[in-house]
Write a structure and sequence with these properties.
The chain has 117 residues and is mainly α. The protein contains 6 helices and no strands. The longest helix has 18 residues. The chain is globular and about 40 Å long. The relative contact order is 0.12.
Amino acid sequence: MSGDVEDSWRQNLVTVVKGPDTSEATGALLALTFDEPDRLWMEKLLLGLIDDDATDPQVRALAVICLGHLARIHGATTAKTVVVRLKALRGDEALRSRAVNALNDIEDFTSEPIEED
């Protein structure tokens, strides 16, 4: 993808992710997760969705799962942000199981050990 096409593709999907249709938003988020080559950009997007109280709960939950997908796809993650945030989400009843699954993916598919707190 050329730079302009890539930027346009990204922006269009981000607009859908933040839009009112939950089904379209989750589909767009999965497309970004699986097809966006910039892992750091994706981590930032996903963490922003998780931390934004205005994000649809289903999109927010999927963003947590997608952090694990990114680790599996790229074989890496940013421990200082992603792992720390996922560990904190273990205290969130609505997102706990998804956070644990994402942490398991990180441990299984990266060299990042997940130490218990």
